[in-house]
Structures are given as structure tokens and as C-alpha cells.
Design goal:
This protein has 256 residues and is of the alpha/beta class. It has 11 helices and 10 strands. It has a 6-stranded mixed sheet with strand order 1-2-3-5-7-10, with helices on both faces. A 4-stranded mixed sheet has the order 4-6-8-9. Strand 2, helix 1 and strand 3 form a beta-alpha-beta unit. Helix 5 crosses helix 6. The longest helix has 16 residues. The radius of gyration is 19 Å and the shape is globular. Pfam families: ECH_1 (PF00378).
């Protein structure tokens, strides 16, 4: 598949998507979101893909929604076409998705990264929700996901002032899983993605669904959901293989 705004690679069982509008720091326009969604659909349907990585360039993961495309939008157009809803395909992917962020992840770029299951950051990463400087507020989850990840005080300061947060602060605040040297970002992301892709795909998806459930429900209901899914895992051949392999002192083979 050939695309205009993204580059797509396969590394064994890992699908790598590079956002690729270098002249505009990967500003997210409707073409890019459309192409991203096509590839997400394809990877989701492909049994040979066990994990997905989304990254940008050294300078920018994405500097936000494309302001030149968005600036003349009217309210009826925005409402009637349900502007931004198409971006949410990423948050509905069932397979694990990692954001590998170097440089700017601003506005919709930060929101896109937060739709992934975790964010691996280069030491050059800068996160922010600067929409307020453009006379709008975040519209793809920034006021909601950022608040859950870093807490009200920091999210409120970032959304109200537009202040950017560097990689070290993002790690301290819990926005990113860890920080790696910029030169190693993609290889580190591919390595952890390969580790995940070698697990049981069923169990990886169920684990993702269970962790995500903690954001949607009470603790008691979340624990109940986890328990039922855990119990059902004893119906999986992969549970038998994983535990048998441990006892036989050999690596498990979840590819059968
Ligand atoms: C369109 C953009 C862009 C964007 C950068 N560019 N961000 N074009 N939309 N979001 C373009 C610039 O116009 C410029 O084009 C080129 O990319 C390089 O950017 P520079 O500004 O020259 O680079 P630099 O000086 O390094 O500054 C980098 C920057 C700055 C700090 C990231 O570009 C910036 O502030 N960008 C806007 C960030 C932002 O406000 N994001 C939120 C968007 S609103 P030319 O042609 O001049 O070379 C949003 C809403 C989300 O995301 C709501 C739901 C999705």
C-alpha cells in the first residue's frame, strides 16, 4: 500500500507507522487521519501483526491538528461532519499500540499519542495542549485523558496556559512509560513491541481491555471484570502452553 502522509513498515510481527508530513511537523490533516485509519484496519485484521508502533520524525511526533486545514471551518461543518470523531479509530484498536514520541507532540499530536496504550518518549519529546493559544481547547481527548494520566493540577495548567512539558517531567508525571535516548527511540519501541507480539495475541488483547476497563468503571466492577476474564483464560491453549513451558524449562510457543 502506498500512502501520501504516512510510511508503513513491517518488522516481523510488528506493524510500524511513521507519520510523514515533514514540511509541517506532521500536522494532522484529514488525509493523514484517513490513511492512518486504513492501516489500522488492515493491521487489526492481519493475524501476522501482534503489535503496532506509531512514531513521527526526530523533530516532531505531530505538532497538532493542521491549522491551515482547520482555520476556516464553521460550526455547522464541524457539527454536521462530527469533526474529530474519525480520529478515535486509534482508541478502538484491540491490538496493543505503542506511541514512540520524539520532538513535539502538541495538541492533536499529544492526544493521538495518548490514545495509544503507552507512550515511549525520546529525551527530546515535548508534550503540550497549546490549543488555547489558538482560541480553542483540546478536542480529541486532551482535557480528559491528560487529566487522568497526570492529574488535575498539571493537566489544568497545561490546558489553560499552553505550557509544554519535557520528557523528564512527562515521565515523573506518569504520561510516558519511560524515556530513552532519541537515537534509540524506534529500536527500543520495536524491541518492546516484538516482546509483546510474541505473547499470546488473545491474552494481550484481553490484558489491554482489562487495563482500559479501569478508566471506565468502579474499582469493584473493574476487579470483577478482571476476575471473569482471568478465569476464562483457563480455556485457552495458550495458558496450557505458557505454564507447561515454564515447568519444562523452555520458552513458550504461542504461535501455534
Ligand atoms: C499546520 C503547522 C503546524 C500545525 C507547524 N506547522 N505546526 N502547520 N498546522 N499544527 C508548520 C509551520 O507553519 C511551518 O510551516 C512548519 O510547520 C515548521 O514549523 P515552524 O513553526 O517554523 O517550526 P518551529 O519554529 O520549530 O516551531 C515548532 C512549533 C510551532 C512550536 C511546533 O510550529 C507551533 O507552535 N505549531 C503549532 C502547534 C499547535 O498550536 N498545535 C495545536 C494545533 S490545534 P512553514 O510553511 O511556515 O514552513 C490542535 C487541535 C486539536 O491540535 C483538536 C482536536 C484534534
Amino acid at each position: 500500500m502506498a500512502f501520501e502522509t504516512i510510511l508503513v513498515e513491517r518488522h516481523e510481527r510488528v506493524g510500524l507507522i511513521r507519520l510523514n508530513r515533514p514540511k509541517v511537523l506532521n500536522a494532522l490533516n484529514s488525509d493523514l487521519i484517513g490513511e492512518l485509519n486504513v492501516v489500522l484496519d488492515a493491521f487489526e485484521a492481519d493475524a501476522d501483526i501482534g503489535c503496532i508502533v506509531i512514531t513521527g520524525s526526530d523533530k516532531a511526533f505531530a505538532a497538532g491538528a493542521d491549522i491551515t486545514e482547520m482555520h476556516a471551518l464553521t460550526y455547522p461543518e464541524s457539527y454536521d461532519n462530527d469533526f474529530i470523531t474519525s480520529w478515535e479509530r486509534l482508541s478502538r484498536v484491540r491490538k496493543p499500540v505503542i506511541a514512540a514520541v520524539a520532538g513535539f507532540a502538541l495538541g492533536g499530536g499529544c492526544e493521538l499519542a495518548m490514545m495509544c496504550d503507552f507512550i515511549l518518549a525520546a529525551d527530546t519529546a515535548k508534550f503540550g495542549q497549546p490549543e488555547i493559544k489558538l482560541g480553542v481547547m483540546p478536542g480529541a481527548g486532551g482535557t480528559q485523558r491528560l487529566t487522568r494520566f497526570v492529574g488535575k493540577s498539571k493537566a489544568m495548567e497545561m490546558c489553560l496556559s499552553g505550557r509544554l512539558m519535557g520528557a523528564a517531567e512527562a515521565e515523573r508525571a506518569g504520561l510516558v512509560s519511560r524515556v530513552v535516548p532519541a537515537a534509540d527511540l524506534v529500536s527500543e519501541a520495536l524491541a518492546v513491541a516484538k516482546t509483546i507480539a510474541d505473547m499470546s495475541p488473545t491474552v494481550a488483547m484481553q490484558t489491554k481491555e482489562s487495563v482500559n476497563r479501569s478508566y471506565e468503571t468502579t474499582l469493584a466492577e473493574g476487579i470483577r471484570f478482571e476476575r471473569r476474564v482471568f478465569q476464562a483464560m483457563f480455556a485457552l491453549e495458550h495458558q496450557k502452553e505458557g505454564m507447561r513451558a515454564f515447568m519444562e524449562k523452555r520458552p513458550p510457543n504461542f504461535r501455534r
